[in-house]
Amino acid sequence: MRNSARIGVGIALSTTILVLITACATTLAPSYDKAIVDGLVSTNKKLMRYFASTSSGTTKETFEKREKTYNELIGSLDALVIQAKARPIPKNNITDKVNEALQERGVAVLEGDDAPSATALEKISETMTKMRDTDKKQGVTAFEVTAFRGQVVIYLDQAITYESYLER
């Protein structure tokens, strides 16, 4: 009788532990947000079209024609930053795995308390703001456009890689 009581208690304890373990959902990363990915894809296309249109360089005299586009791009990027930062970030090793994937592709990784995509989007916004301000002051040469584009592409790759990684 003692053995069957122990077995019963063992089964009850095992069942209770199993229920508790399965009831506790562990979040490994922020949740996938299709709106952020769609915004990234859309903004990526707009940025690349813009870089193509300015690839020969610009002059400060024609800046007014481009100012609205700069502001729309920067505003879209800043809105995506807010969306990306609005998701809670659990503490775990998912960012390490994403950073490993980025490093394997030869892309620099980002550190910080926010999602890597949010940090990357902030850097893109800063880059586009610097390009806008330079363009307004003196225009940008074809070489400068290429440099700004290169920096934006690196950060876009980081943001898109991270957000795509979340869709699992």
What does this 3D model show about the protein?
The chain is mostly helical and 168 residues long. The chain has one domain. It contains six helices and no strands. Helix 2 (34-53) packs antiparallel against helix 3 (63-86), helix 2 packs antiparallel against helix 6 and helix 5 (116-138) packs antiparallel against helix 6.
Total DSSP E strands: 0
Unreliable stretches (pLDDT < 50, length at least 5) are: 7-27
In N-to-C order, the SSE pattern is HHHHHH
Beta content comes to under 5%
Q: Report the principal-axis shape.
A: elongated
The main sheet comes to: none
Mean pLDDT: 82
Calculate Rg over CA atoms. Answer: 24 Å
Number of helical elements: 6
Distance between the termini: 50 Å
Helix content: over 70%
Structural class: mainly alpha
In the residues, how many domains can be counted?
Answer: 1
